[in-house]
Structure formats: structure tokens, C-alpha cells
Amino acid sequence: MIWEMSTPKTQTLKLTLAYNGARFKGWQKGNGRTVQSTLIEIISKALPEASHGLTPANFELRLDGAGRTDAGVHAEGQVASAVVPASVSPELLFEKVNQHLPVDLALVSLVVAEDRFHARYRAQAKTYRYTVVDGPVGDPFLHGRAWRYPVQLDLEHMKAAAEVFVGQQDFSAFTSDRPKPNKERRIFSITISRTRTAVVSPVEILVRGDGFLWRQVRIMAAAIVAAGARELSPAEIQRVLASRTRAQAPAPAPACGLTLVSVEY
Q1: Which residues are catalytic?
Q2: Are strands 184-194 and 203-209 parallel, antiparallel or unpaired?
Q3: How do residues 8-41 score in pLDDT, each as one tens digit?
Q4: Do 99 and 69 fall into the same domain?
Q5: What's the domain count of the chain?
């Protein structure tokens, strides 16, 4: 793998980000308002001031994210890496960038990383949370942050279904990423529990793995929720997984319920 490395004239920065994905067209630039394009624009404008005017006018910023979240997906701990001029003060850049970010995007931290650090290629594990507000009562405070599901879900059935996905397996049936040849991924754990808000007790599906394919977590969440509604059994989910056929798995759960919680290095 080849990626941009810092030199004596540059430095590598590690950025931790949080965003509400409702109005973003995902992470990847080139598709309207995205997290990556918004950050590149704002950071690029802040670089001259953060380097006391020493950043070259033609400096082209590259920003790499740990994961390419889909349109509508949120993040609490997205990580990105950037190579910037050595003259840039990280503390001043952190201050200036946060002054100009939109309300649905925050730069939580910015630190100098080792020269070879790359947010995507160095990631060892990622954790996603999928939130479901189930049953007859909704929660207005989770609107846009959870899947509103009218059926009361059985947690024990969901936990049994989740066990099917744990381990190193081929997830061809649970991804929309057809061109990618290697569809094996390792799921370290899936934890399912109820939390408590001021209004309801939503279900949280916490998935930790070494990496994820396009829409994999959302399709897995849809299958786990279907098990909780007693529409799918663990045995049926196992057969779908073994089939490696996308058409046999459910449609992805809505993007609004998914949040990238953290990335481990």
C-alpha cells in the first residue's frame, strides 16, 4: 500500500471527529455536501493563519478517513489523518477550524501523529452502534438518530441471531459492495441491550470488528431486528450467511440509526 508520508517539511496530524450525518452525503468527497469535502475546505482556509502565513498558496491538502460512512450515518469518533506543513501549529489549527465548522460537525481533537500514521490502513478495529426505538411509543429526541420500529423486539432472540455473525466469515450476503473480491471480515463481538431515555428504552446493537464492508452493519442490524420481531430465526440467518447471496438477506436498516462510535489503533 502506498500513501502520502510526511517529510522534514511536513507533519502528520490525527483528527478525531463527530458529526450528525443527516445533512451529509456520507464521508467521501465528490457527491455533494460530504464530511470530507467540508473539512478539506475549512482546514485549507485555516492553514495559512495556523502557520502564520507560511503555508504555500498551492498546498494541496489530503485528508483520509478511517471509514467511509454512508449518507445519513453519524459519527462520535471518526478518525482522519492529514499531512500538513511543518510550520502549522496544531493547537492554532484546532482553534481556527472549530471556529468555522458547521453546527453538525465538530473537530473533537487534533494531535501530531507518527510519520507513517494513516487513519484507514492503521486501523485495527472499529465499533458501530445501531439504535432502534421499538414498540408503540416513539422518542422525539431520537428522531433522525434511530430506526423507528413499531413492533416490540425480543432481546433474547436478537442476541441469539447476533451470535451467528461473530467470528471470521464471508459476508457476501450482507454487503452491497459487489466489486470487492475479499468479503471476509472478523466480528469480535456484538452486544445488544436496552438503554433508557426520558421517554423510552431503545435497543442498542453494538458491533465491534476488524473492518466492515459497504452497508454490512446496516444489513446485519436489519437481520437482527427481524429476529427480534420473530420474522427470522438464527438458523435462517445462518443459511443466508452461508449462501453468500445478497438477494437472500434483508434490505439495509435505515442509515439514521447507525453511528460510528470509535476506531482503535
Answers
A1: 70
A2: antiparallel
A3: 689 999 999 999 999 999 999 988 999 999 999 9
A4: yes
A5: 2
